[in-house]
């Protein structure tokens, strides 16, 4: 009855406030042209303005996306043309080339779930066509490819710090023309810190996890009633800086072993659930710092509900595309949206926690058989 709860987002240990600050600054935090906003979408908008992209300029963007990045580009006055991804989640060149015209100024490249795309190849592809490369490393902070940090090849690269560490917010950007730092007064972030602490306790104490399981669905329902259509894509004020608690706690959280722990957790889940993993993610490449662990199931929503009842709060990954996407024209992206679930893999999980996640998935799979299909 009293079941611990494990969610996608990294939790925040209670002792973090008493830790010593790390002197280690990973890419892009060690770059002079790095700017940090509250959210990566605000960083995207600000970078577009700094790069003097004009109203009507076009960016080639993947059909498989979150939606907030698309909204930021549109609010910056740009147009978007969607391209399909290939079987490796890379841009499908066959769909890219017909989209090129004089208005196209940039290619938007997403590093999904922290798995690095070939940034060097796409930088050359863009240079050959006089285009900007915009790298979305929102889920790939701390990832590297051939020991080069993901995001190094782009004219612009954005990162979500809070998807790796349990801080309230933090969207970093580097650009060949850095945007001005955000100018608004920072919020405290205390409420979001409290929630991350409670999430950490919920992984240790079944009683708290039980209460979390009761309250979370009610809060989600209440938010859905209040939210405006497509509210999850809204940018907010682009001049918003990171919360004060983000600035204070991030140096205490930065750790050179974070990527190793996430990789270790991913490999453990892969060893036990590998037959359920989409083929693009069955091999963990050197340098990847996974954001989450993907599994592919046919009956995604009831599967998620059974997982929730067992204490695992998975996520139907990017189920809602931006409303401007003609969904039916991009079958591979639609397939992934409807069937790929994300499970926790963050660095605060213990081996005991991972065993519980595996058991929950296997028991849910017995009740609702998962069927894997190549995409």
Automatic annotation (TrEMBL):
Q: Which GO terms describe its molecular function?
A: pyridoxal phosphate binding; transaminase activity
Is Transmembrane there in the keyword field? Answer: no
Which regions form coiled coils?
none
Q: Which domain of life is it from?
A: Bacteria
Which key words tag this protein in UniProt?
Pyridoxal phosphate
User: Sorted alphabetically, which InterPro entries does this protein's record hold?
Assistant: DegT/StrS_aminotransferase, PyrdxlP-dep_Trfase, PyrdxlP-dep_Trfase_major, PyrdxlP-dep_Trfase_small
Q: One GO biological process from the UniProt record?
A: polysaccharide biosynthetic process
Q: What is a single Pfam family found in this protein's UniProt entry?
A: DegT_DnrJ_EryC1
In the record, the note on similarity to other proteins reads: Belongs to the DegT/DnrJ/EryC1 family.
This protein is called dTDP-4-amino-4,6-dideoxygalactose transaminase
The taxonomic lineage of its organism, from the top, reads:
Bacteria, Pseudomonadati, Bacteroidota, Cytophagia, Cytophagales
């Amino acid at each position: 009855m009293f079941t611990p709860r494990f969610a996608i987002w990294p939790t925040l240990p209670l002792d973090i406030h008493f830790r010593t600050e790390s002197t280690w600054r990973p890419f892009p935090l060690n770059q002079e042209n790095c700017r940090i906003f509250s959210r990566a979408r605000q960083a995207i908008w600000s970078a577009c303005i700094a790069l003097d992209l004009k109203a009507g300029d076009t960016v080639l963007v993947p059909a498989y996306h979150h939606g907030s990045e698309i909204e930021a580009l549109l609010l910056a006055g740009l147009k978007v043309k969607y391209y399909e991804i290939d079987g490796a989640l890379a841009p499908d060149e066959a769909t890219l080339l017909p989209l090129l015209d004089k208005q196209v100024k940039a290619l938007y490249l997403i590093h999904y779930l922290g798995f690095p795309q070939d940034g060097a190849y796409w930088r050359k592809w863009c240079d050959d066509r006089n285009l900007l490369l915009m790298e979305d490393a929102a889920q790939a902070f701390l990832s590297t490819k051939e020991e080069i940090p993901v995001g190094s090849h782009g004219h612009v690269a954005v990162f979500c710090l809070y998807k790796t560490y349990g801080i309230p917010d933090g969207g970093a950007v580097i650009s060949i023309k850095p945007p001005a730092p955000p100018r608004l007064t920072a919020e405290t972030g205390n409420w979001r810190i409290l929630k991350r602490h409670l999430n950490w306790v919920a992984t240790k104490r079944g009683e708290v996890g039980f209460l979390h399981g009761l309250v979370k669905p009610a809060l989600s329902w209440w938010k859905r009633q209040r939210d405006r259509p497509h509210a999850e894509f809204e940018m907010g004020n682009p001049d918003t800086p990171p919360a004060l608690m983000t600035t204070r706690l991030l140096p205490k959280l930065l750790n050179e072993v974070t990527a190793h722990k996430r990789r270790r957790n991913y490999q453990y889940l892969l060893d036990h659930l590998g037959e359920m993993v989409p083929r693009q993610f069955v091999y963990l490449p050197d340098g990847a710092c996974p954001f989450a662990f993907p599994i592919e199931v046919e009956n995604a929503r009831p599967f998620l509900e059974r997982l929730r009842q067992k204490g695992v709060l998975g996520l139907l990954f990017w189920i809602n595309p931006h409303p401007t996407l003609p969904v039916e024209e991009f079958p591979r992206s639609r397939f992934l949206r409807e069937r790929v679930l994300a499970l926790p893999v963050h660095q605060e999980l213990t081996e005991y926690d991972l065993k519980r996640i595996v058991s929950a998935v296997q028991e849910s799979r017995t009740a609702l058989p998962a069927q894997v299909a190549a995409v």
